[in-house]
UniProtKB/TrEMBL annotation:
<comment type="similarity">
    <text>Belongs to the peptidase M24B family.</text>
</comment>
<protein>
    <submittedName>
        <fullName>Aminopeptidase P family protein</fullName>
    </submittedName>
</protein>
<dbReference type="InterPro" id="IPR000994">
    <property type="entry name" value="Pept_M24"/>
</dbReference>
<keyword id="KW-0479">Metal-binding</keyword>
<feature type="domain" description="Peptidase M24">
    <location>
        <begin position="175"/>
        <end position="375"/>
    </location>
</feature>
<feature type="compositionally biased region" description="Low complexity">
    <location>
        <begin position="14"/>
        <end position="24"/>
    </location>
</feature>
<dbReference type="InterPro" id="IPR000587">
    <property type="entry name" value="Creatinase_N"/>
</dbReference>
<dbReference type="Pfam" id="PF01321">
    <property type="entry name" value="Creatinase_N"/>
</dbReference>
<dbReference type="Pfam" id="PF00557">
    <property type="entry name" value="Peptidase_M24"/>
</dbReference>
<dbReference type="InterPro" id="IPR036005">
    <property type="entry name" value="Creatinase/aminopeptidase-like"/>
</dbReference>
<keyword id="KW-0645">Protease</keyword>
<dbReference type="InterPro" id="IPR001131">
    <property type="entry name" value="Peptidase_M24B_aminopep-P_CS"/>
</dbReference>
<keyword id="KW-0031">Aminopeptidase</keyword>
<feature type="compositionally biased region" description="Acidic residues">
    <location>
        <begin position="1"/>
        <end position="13"/>
    </location>
</feature>
<keyword id="KW-0378">Hydrolase</keyword>
<feature type="domain" description="Creatinase N-terminal">
    <location>
        <begin position="34"/>
        <end position="166"/>
    </location>
</feature>
<dbReference type="GO" id="GO:0004177">
    <property type="term" value="F:aminopeptidase activity"/>
</dbReference>
Length: 392
């Protein structure tokens, strides 16, 4: 999804991420390895450790997701010199101990009437420098700073931006299954009537089909018809789709805890020569970016490959967003395929490749696949046709 303000999937749906055998549950050793790697990588950067609060990082690292958002402090502490420790409200301890990764950590509790930040401070070094989950409540961070005034804290996305970027094989299996489910939903949408219907009604159909094909959470269903397709931030409104409209479809969500994200552009009735040319330019740009994917190539080079095709066609000013973003337990995460991002690609990274052209007040075109980097290059997880589909 190209919308930089779209839902980034801070809640990871209704499942715990993936499994080796049964979708939804990884094994304890998987979580132990993730926590050990995070602690090791933090130590190599001179950090005293990593502090993780509820959100996608906590769920990915130890498999625990509190039952609901709460002001009560929950904190995972990862350091290279100690077993992982999870501090939870006393009432939540049974749920924490039932998490699939709980056997690899020690659970501590605090109770109402006690100061949880004092309890947390007892697990930290007074002068330590810590990476902290981006979604940590300001309340908790400020209280930790008050409890340990000589400790320092940095956003986890700044110090360990690639923490979840490289996927293992079980994660890749889940991402491929999510992509296949999104593809199946798209194939069914092509058989529906577009003309004469409101965008939001078609978006509802698309969301329904995503759920029917196994998505527990629908993150976004963009239906941008005619001039609305020229707005990368448009989702779906009350505009009635007309014969002759280009329609941008951008959709995805979470299946078995892992994300799908795909975009295709269709046309209601026969397209004009100009519409075909613009669509072909975007298709060629997407192909050029895909072919540039290989280990060691920087993220910005993928963006440049797509942008060069669009610029050559005279549409440089009509491609205003990055070429892609990582996809995993959230639908938007590192790495980001954008100018200035020098992070090299590595096997196991998964990301969207989604160039577009947007002609103001007229129409837009976007084509998007989730791609994984392999030892030999890129592999598309989405496999539906990139041709301009004609719908009725």
């Amino acid at each position: 999804m190209s919308d930089p303000d779209a839902d980034d999937g801070e809640g990871t749906g209704e499942e715990t991420p993936g499994t080796h055998g049964t979708p939804g549950v990884f094994k304890e050793q998987d979580y132990a390895a993730r926590m050990a790697r995070a602690a090791y990588e933090a130590a190599t950067l001179g950090l005293a450790g990593v502090l993780v609060t509820p959100g996608p990082d906590l769920e990915w690292l130890c498999g625990y997701r509190p039952a609901g958002a709460t002001e009560r402090l929950t904190l995972l502490v990862l350091t290279a010199d100690a077993q992982p420790r999870l501090l939870v409200p006393g009432l939540d301890r049974p749920d924490a101990e039932a998490a699939p990764g709980a056997g690899a950590l020690r659970v501590f509790e605090w109770w109402d009437g006690q100061n949880p930040h004092t309890a947390a401070a007892g697990l930290l070094r007074p002068h330590g420098r810590y990476g902290v989950s981006d979604g940590t409540w300001a309340l908790h961070l400020l209280c930790l700073q008050q409890s340990l005034p000589l400790a320092t804290y940095q956003p986890l996305s700044a110090v360990l931006p690639m923490l979840r970027a490289v996927k293992d094989e079980p994660e890749l299996v889940r991402l491929a299954a999510a992509a296949a489910a999104a593809d199946a939903a798209y194939e069914e949408v092509l058989g529906l009537r577009f003309g004469g219907r409101r965008e939001r009604d078609l978006a509802a159909d698309l969301a329904r089909l995503l759920r029917e094909h196994g998505h527990s959470r629908v993150g976004l269903t963009v239906v941008g018809s005619g001039p609305h397709g020229a707005d990368p931030h448009h989702r779906a409104g009350d505009r009635v789709i007309e014969d002759g409209d280009m329609v941008v479809l951008d959709f995805g969500g979470l299946k078995d805890g892992y994300g799908s994200d795909s975009a295709r552009t269709v046309h209601v009735g026969a397209p004009t020569d100009e519409e075909r040319r613009v669509h072909e330019t975007v298709r060629a740009a997407q192909q050029a970016a895909f072919e540039a994917v290989r280990p060691g190539v920087s993220c910005q080079e993928i963006d440049r490959a797509a942008r060069a095709v669009i610029e050559e066609a005279g549409h440089a000013e009509h491609f205003p967003h990055r070429t892609g973003h990582g996809v995993g337990v959230t639908v938007h995460e590192p790495p980001y395929l954008v100018e200035g991002e020098e992070q090299p690609l590595a096997p196991g990274m998964c990301f969207s490749v989604e160039p577009g052209i947007y002609l103001p007040d007229r129409f837009g075109v976007r084509i998007e696949d989730v791609v994984t980097c392999t030892e030999d290059g890129g592999r598309r997880l989405n496999t539906t046709s990139h041709e301009l589909a004609v719908v009725h």
